[in-house]
Design brief:
This protein has 216 residues and is an alpha/beta fold. The protein has helices at residues 7-10, 23-30, 65-70, 77-89, 123-140, 150-157, 163-166, 188-193, 197-215; strands spanning 49-50, 56-60, 97-100, 107-108, 117-118, 144-148, 171-175, 178-185. It has a 6-stranded mixed sheet. It has a two-stranded antiparallel ribbon with strand order 4-5. Helix 4 crosses helix 9 and helix 5 packs across helix 6 (150-157).
């Protein structure tokens, strides 16, 4: 006799995403998502936030430690750096919609009670979480997507994506059935890890200025 697989075993968030829902209903539904195993260890789902009619959507990789604890994306050091870079580039952070390709924090720890160390999500985990991002795009309908880092790029543009090859350029692609314009750049957390942080920061600002020109 065939065994019916649970949604989690099927590895997709699709059964948890309500059809035609607005952002508040999507956020509530996402809180109960069991579409992949990442929900087991994370504190909570971290859904997107910001202007529901934003002209620009910023898509990062996944929540970090602080985001997982607070339930909001980009509230840690990388988020503060991103807000500063956006403002310097001429994009009002308060007018953007900010989210992640993966909605649960994936981490590892050397020992119990030790600091939780970020671990990159797999392509399968990113694909499983894709229906949430598709739903956000359908509601917000941004004019431009800013892709923050390699993982977000792979989630949106496929496994061959390399941020170093296309950063600071304007791409036109079909994403989840919608024609979209995208500007890829590095994830702000990579700026914080850079040996020459100022040069890395200025590179991020330069890429975001390309996005600002598209929106002008």
């Amino acid at each position: 006799m065939a065994v019916t697989k649970a949604p989690e075993d099927a590895y997709t968030a699709a059964p948890f995403v309500p059809d035609g829902a607005g952002l508040p209903d999507l956020r509530r539904a996402a809180a109960g998502c069991r579409g992949c195993p990442l929900h087991r260890d994370a504190t909570q789902t971290v859904f997107g936030t910001g202007n529901a009619h934003a002209r620009v959507m910023l898509v990062g990789e996944q929540p970090g430690d602080q985001e997982d604890r607070q339930g909001e994306p980009f509230v840690g050091p990388a988020g503060k750096l991103l807000d500063r870079a956006l403002a310097e580039a001429g994009i009002d952070p308060g007018e953007a919609y900010v989210t992640n390709a993966v909605k649960h924090f994936k981490f590892t720890r050397a020992e119990p009670r030790k600091r939780r160390i970020h671990k990159a999500p797999t392509l399968r985990e990113m694909t499983a979480c894709g229906p949430w991002l598709a739903a956000e795009l359908a509601v917000v309908e941004p004019e431009l997507i800013v892709v923050l880092g390699a993982t977000a790029g792979k989630a949106l543009l496929g496994s061959a994506f390399r941020v170093t090859q296309v950063r600071g350029t304007v791409l036109e692609r079909e994403i989840h059935g919608r024609p979209e314009r995208l500007v890829p750049t590095v994830h702000p957390s990579s700026v914080l890890r850079a040996d020459d942080r100022e040069a890395a920061y200025q590179g991020l600002v330069a890429d975001l200025r390309v996005a600002a020109r598209v929106l002008s």
